[in-house]
Amino acid sequence: MKFIQASESAIQDLEPLSPFKPHTFAFLLHLIQLILHLEDNGSSSLISPREVLDPAETILVRWGLTVPWSWKIWGDPRIANAECVTHLVRVL
Amino acid sequence: MRTYVTTQVPRCSFYGHVEKWQAVPGVISSERASPAAKRLALRMTFAVYIIGPQFSGYDPWKDGGCVNEIPYAISIFSDVSFVHRVQPSDMMKILRAHITQLRGTVATPSSAIDLSEQERLGYAMIVSLFAVSRCIYNFYSLLVQ
Fold it and tell me: Is A5 helix (H, G, I), strand (E, B) or coil?
C-alpha cells in the first residue's frame, strides 16, 4: 500500500539521534506505558507473549506505524523508560 | 453514528465552520469543546487518518484527497463532501496542544490499573495519530529536499 510504503522511508527520521527528547515524546512514552500496564516494573515477561490483545493494545500494535516509529524514537536504551517499547513487540 | 456526531460536535465548539469535516481534528485540542466532544473528535480523526487509509488505500493527507469519491469506510460518517486540509504539521500541533491539556490529569504508571478502557483507547489513538503524522511529515520533508 502506497501509504505504508511512503511512510517506511519516512521512518528514517530526520531528527538527530539524541538521548534528549522533547516533552511530547516523554509524555507519549508515558502513555504507552499506561496502555501496556507496565506498572509491575518489567516483571511481566518478554518471553511469554500475550495471547490476547485488548482494544487499546491492538490500536498500538496493529494500526498505524506506532511500532516501527517508537523503535526509531526510543531505540536508545539510555532514555528513561525506553524499555517499554520492547514490550510492544512482546504482543506482536 | 452520523446523527450522534452532528449533535455533539457543532454544539460544543464555536468554530463556525465545524460542518466542514476538516475542522473535526481541531476539536481534539479545543479549549471550548466538552470532554465528550473531544473524545468523539479523537475517535473520528483516528477512523479517518488511521483506519480509513488501511481499508481503502486513499490518502487523507492529500489536498482534497477524497472530494470526488468518498471511500466506503468514511461514507458512513457523512454525506458532506470530505475535504481534508489538515496537514501533518497541523495534526502534530493539535496533538501537542491536547497532550499539554492532558498532562495534569494523566495517571502515574502505578495507578494504571484504575484507568478505564475508554481512557486507554484514547491514549492509544493519540500515540498512533502522532506517530503517523510524524512519519508523513518526515516523508514530505524528504520530498522537498
Answer: helix
C-alpha cell at A61: 500494535
Contacts of residue B120 in chain A, CB cutoff 8 Å?
Answer: 34-35, 54, 56
d(CA B88, CA B95): 10
Identify the residue among A4, A35, A57, A84 best suited for mutation to test binding to B, counting B beta carbons within 10 A and taking the highest.
Answer: A35
Q: Is B5:B13 a contact under the CB 8 Å cutoff?
A: no
| Cβ contacts of A3 within 8 Å, gap of 6 or more | B53, B54, B57, B59
- Give chain B positions within 8 Å (CB) of A14: 138, 141-142
This model of the complex carries an ipTM of 0.73
Evaluate if pTM is beyond 0.90: no
Q: Which three cell numbers stand for residue A74?
A: 526510543
Euclidean distance between CA atoms A60 and A78, whole angstroms = 23
| CA–CA distance, B96 with B69 (Å, rounded to integer) | 31
Over residues B98-113, the pLDDT tens digits come to 998 888 777 666 665 6
Sorted by sequence, the CB contacts under 8 Å of residue B134 that are 6+ apart come out as A13, A69, B88, B92
